[in-house]
Amino acid sequence: MDFLMYKGKTIAVVLTCGGVQHVVSGFAELADDEDMGTVLRIQLQQQGRDLAGHPVLIVHENVLGKCLVDDDRYGCDFRLDLSPPVNPSH
Predict the structure, then answer these.
(1) Which residue among 3, 12, 70, 83 is least packed, with the fewest CB closer than 10 Å?
(2) Domain 3-81: CATH class, spelled out
(3) In terms of Cα–Cα distance, which of 62, 81, 61 is closest to 71?
(4) Is the pLDDT reported for residue 61 higher than 70?
């Protein structure tokens, strides 16, 4: 996977907690992790402001291939959807 294509791009991160969807975003940076190798590091923000405690999301390439799509619906270059899949039978 070519991590360089994500460097400096904005990424919307979609999370679902307690059935409520939350969207935060941040700029992607490349980082080297001693255990995981090259990862994307996203400093999370909401509406252009750093979140309390300055949380960072570290994303391994295995997750990127499954959850990261080229999508600008949240005003970012990409969308990383970490919400669990919806099961219509429940």
Answers:
(1) 70
(2) mainly beta
(3) 81
(4) yes
